[in-house]
């Protein structure tokens, strides 16, 4: 099954590895071992302020170690690699910065074709999560207010009409509040694979987002703070599979 087909499955989890924060080989090996044991569905790799060298080192090692789909979640054109299985070709359509609507894409286009990674064109909406996120800062864009479901819906609808294959709502790394259940439920109507991230720190939140219709819940910071959360995730996945 290719990645865009996999994204349509329910109740999935992706772990985000930010190369900027994961430089030691020992740390990465240990993390990958726990990720495999946990049974999560994807590893996403990317960050808003990653250097090319950090990115290349991390993706090179991950490619050797990872047995589940490795998907690039790039913050800039230099985060493209032939070593990944897929790449989220993000369009930051909650913002109005042309660099994040088409600029980085032009810079990356040749490298993406050469990489042969599966390209998943993705509407990327930044939703206010109660703290100023790195993505908002780097992209110099303003997130959609947390409770403005109709603005988010119309933005995502435009992305779907443009032809994007997936929809990613991100409250921003380390958000105080994850994307709301009412926003997730509203977005489900669009019938696109729905990826939700930012500020998810508990199994309860994962479960609530899954029940609301998120196909993929992305966890970044929580694993950086507490790697053993992957054991809790393992139990969560086992329980879901039993049902
Ligand atoms: C077309 C290509 C190849 C790149 C541009 C892609 C676009 C439009 C990106 C959107 C904006 C952006 C900067 C996204 C970065 C996404 C990401 C991986 C965020 C998570 O990590 P950090 O924001 O680094 O989190 P921390 O602040 O915790 O380090
Ligand atoms: O680090 P956290 O808060 O889990 O966020 C993950 C990701 O969606 C950020 O772009
Ligand atoms: Mg970062």
TrEMBL record:
Reactions catalysed, semicolon-separated, are: sn-glycerol 1-phosphate + (2E,6E,10E)-geranylgeranyl diphosphate = sn-3-O-(geranylgeranyl)glycerol 1-phosphate + diphosphate
Q: Which InterPro entries does the record cross-reference, listed alphabetically?
A: GGGP/HepGP_synthase_I (IPR039074), GGGP/HepGP_synthase_sf (IPR038597), GGGP_HepGP_synthase (IPR008205)
Which annotated residues bind sn-glycerol 1-phosphate?
168-174, 198-199, 220-221
Which GO MF terms does the UniProt record name?
A: heptaprenylglyceryl phosphate synthase activity; magnesium ion binding; phosphoglycerol geranylgeranyltransferase activity
Enzyme Commission number, as recorded: 2.5.1.41
Query: Where does the source fall among the domains of life?
Result: Bacteria
Residues involved in Mg(2+) binding = 18, 48
Names of the cofactor(s) = Mg(2+)
One short Pfam name that applies is: PcrB
Record keywords, A-Z: Lipid biosynthesis, Lipid metabolism, Magnesium, Metal-binding, Phospholipid biosynthesis, Phospholipid metabolism, Transferase
State the Gene Ontology BP annotations. glycerophospholipid biosynthetic process
The record's section on HAMAP family has: GGGP_HepGP_synthase
Protein role: Prenyltransferase that catalyzes the transfer of the geranylgeranyl moiety of geranylgeranyl diphosphate (GGPP) to the C3 hydroxyl of sn-glycerol-1-phosphate (G1P).
The entry's family comment says: Belongs to the GGGP/HepGP synthase family. Group II subfamily.
Q: Provide the protein name.
A: Geranylgeranylglyceryl phosphate synthase
Q: Which organism is it from?
A: Taishania pollutisoli
């Amino acid at each position: 099954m290719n990645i865009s087909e996999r994204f349509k499955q329910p109740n999935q989890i992706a772990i985000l590895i930010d190369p900027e924060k994961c430089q030691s080989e020992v740390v990465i090996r240990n993390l990958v071992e726990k990720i495999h044991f946990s049974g999560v569905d994807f590893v996403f790799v990317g960050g808003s302020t990653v250097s090319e060298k950090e990115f290349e080192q991390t993706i090179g090692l991950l490619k050797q170690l990872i047995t589940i789909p490795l998907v690039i979640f790039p913050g800039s054109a230099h985060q493209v690699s032939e070593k990944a299985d897929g790449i989220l070709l993000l369009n930051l359509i909650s913002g109005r910065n042309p660099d994040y609507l088409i600029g980085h894409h032009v810079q990356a286009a040749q490298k993406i074709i050469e990489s042969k990674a599966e390209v998943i064109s993705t509407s990327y909406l930044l939703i206010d999560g109660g703290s100023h996120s790195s993505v908002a800062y780097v992209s110099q864009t303003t997130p959609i207010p947390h409770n403005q479901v109709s603005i988010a819906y119309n933005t995502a609808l435009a992305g779907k009409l443009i032809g994007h294959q997936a929809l990613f709502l991100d409250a921003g790394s380390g958000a105080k509040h994850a994307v709301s259940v009412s926003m997730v439920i509203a977005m489900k109507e669009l019938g696109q694979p729905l990826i939700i991230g930012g500020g998810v720190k508990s199994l309860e939140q994962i479960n609530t987002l899954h029940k609301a219709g998120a196909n993929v819940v992305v966890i970044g910071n929580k694993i950086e703070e507490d790697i053993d959360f992957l054991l809790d995730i393992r139990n969560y996945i086992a329980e879901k599979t039993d049902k």
